[in-house]
Amino acid sequence: MPLDAELARLDATLAHDLLRFGPELLLCLGIVGSLFAKLFRAATRVQLVPFALLLTLVALGLVASDAQDSAVFGGLLRLDSFANFFRVFLLLTAALVLALTRLTGLPDATDSADFVTLLLGGTLGMMLMASANHLIMVFLAIEMASLPSYVLAGFLKGKGRSSEAALKYVVYGAAASGVMLYGISLLVGQLGTAYLPSAAESLGAAFRSGGFSLSLTAGLLFLFVGLGFKLAVLPFQFWLPDVFEGAAAEVGAMLAVASKAAAVGLTLRLLFVLFQHVPIPAVTETVSAALAGVAVLTATLGNVAALVQTNLKRLLAYSTIAHAGYMLMAIACIQRPAAAAVLFYLAGYLPMTLGAFAVVAVLRSLTGSEEIDAARGLLKRSPVLGVCTAVFLFSLLGVPPLAGFAGKFQVFTAVYRTGAFHAAGGHPWLGTLFNVVLAAGVVNTVVSAGYYLKVLKAVALDDPTDETPLGEGVAVRLYLLLLTAAVVVVGVWWDPLTDLTWRAAVGLG
């Protein structure tokens, strides 16, 4: 019977989709298991972070072995090479953060179930952000990533700054989500669909029939307001320094790396899919130019504000704002080579930023302070910790041959080529604009030396206030040396990663 055949087809499709969705289902299993563990008093004495770490690594292996490219669950998600890049990236980040928490003692066994639930839940939402193929799924994924992040920001119980950080994060995040949801409702009402490929066709037809209406323009603007909040770009960056200062350094690492990467992935997908049927000049003269201007202002604000910071977490918060500006410079190009450059940048951004936050977490555990003064004489008190810190900071600055230099080289090259492309294509003002963006990126890199070298001076040249060796332990040293090695490898061995990021960028859209 036709009905039986249709049911069999749907059953086979669902089985295939669930298999592809296996890594996310494993995270769901970890979340549900952690919640059930809270029901048993004996479970509160068991540290669940190692189990979550094992589950994350298994999910990572499943994603790494997935080479298919298809939409799943009726087109709600697109699991392509682009999505798989971010699934691997986010799972690897979660695994490294979980490992870091075991080394620094956050959380203890009593709170481990709550922490695991929140971290795995946030990671799941971020993975869905990178693969969302439907505007409703875009909103749901962002909320799934945001809500656990709000609680994680205030996870340090009994600390006023931590509670304040969580409250600010919730208030600003709720406002951004409301604006974004209103934008999505406007887009769906005007385009008649929330499915991204169909919305792109309707958007192209609307443009050809006389340009975007006020409602369409407002919908797109409000949609990207929500993304701007997640990326922490100007003028939506004001929440980030306070949240990072109040949150634990381990949580700050997750927010700085994973949350930023998920927002970058979603922004790239929306730009490449929604505007694929709109003439290129119309996109570059409006969206691209606006993003380029925001990128320059964001990088400048982040670097200038970081110059006067004395708290290491607050300094790194402004550093992440500046790096969001660098990445947005390439995103503004809206070209596949530039998208590949952003992915390469993220690959180097992971170990150097996570490493910097890990150093802060270790210093907090050993000295009780997160100020720059706590790092004075670090090279004398712990040579391994001091050398690793220097490598992370030099990489964040962009000194060759480290990952930060390789990433900035890729991004700046993409910006330069985009400017040359527009100049040769009859749009000299766009060529000039991207040349200005390139110059601003170089100048900002020079400015950033002011605060990175300030910390390096304290680490390597200043006398310690306490001559006692830190005694961070072998496991901590191995962890930091692993991240340091990754920073060097990404900075020296470009070709495999360049090929990987290019394949991911080609699969976009």
UniProtKB/TrEMBL annotation:
Give the way it sits in the membrane.
Multi-pass membrane protein
Return the PANTHER family for the record.
Answer: NADH DEHYDROGENASE (PTHR22773)
Instruction: Give the keywords, sorted.
Output: Cell membrane, Membrane, NAD, Quinone, Translocase, Transmembrane, Transmembrane helix, Transport, Ubiquinone
Q: Any transmembrane segments, and where?
A: 20-40, 47-65, 85-103, 115-132, 138-157, 169-192, 212-240, 252-275, 287-308, 315-332, 338-363, 384-409, 429-453, 474-494
What is the official name of this protein in its record? NADH-quinone oxidoreductase subunit N
Q: Which residues form a coiled coil?
A: none
Record's keyword annotation contains Transmembrane helix: yes
Q: What class of enzyme is it?
A: translocase
**Which Enzyme Commission number(s) are listed?**
7.1.1.-
Just give the chief location class.
membrane
- Tell me the Gene Ontology biological-process terms attached to this UniProt entry: ATP synthesis coupled electron transport
**Per the record, what is one GO cellular component?**
plasma membrane
Reactions catalysed, semicolon-separated, are: a quinone + NADH + 5 H(+)(in) = a quinol + NAD(+) + 4 H(+)(out)
Quaternary structure, per UniProt, is: NDH-1 is composed of 14 different subunits. Subunits NuoA, H, J, K, L, M, N constitute the membrane sector of the complex.
- List the InterPro entries hit by this protein, alphabetically: NADH-Q_OxRdtase_suN/2 (IPR010096), ND/Mrp_TM (IPR001750)
Q: Which NCBIfam families match?
A: NDH_I_N (TIGR01770)
Q: Where is the NADH:quinone oxidoreductase/Mrp antiporter transmembrane domain?
A: 132-420
Role this protein plays: NDH-1 shuttles electrons from NADH, via FMN and iron-sulfur (Fe-S) centers, to quinones in the respiratory chain. The immediate electron acceptor for the enzyme in this species is believed to be ubiquinone. Couples the redox reaction to proton translocation (for every two electrons transferred, four hydrogen ions are translocated across the cytoplasmic membrane), and thus conserves the redox energy in a proton gradient.
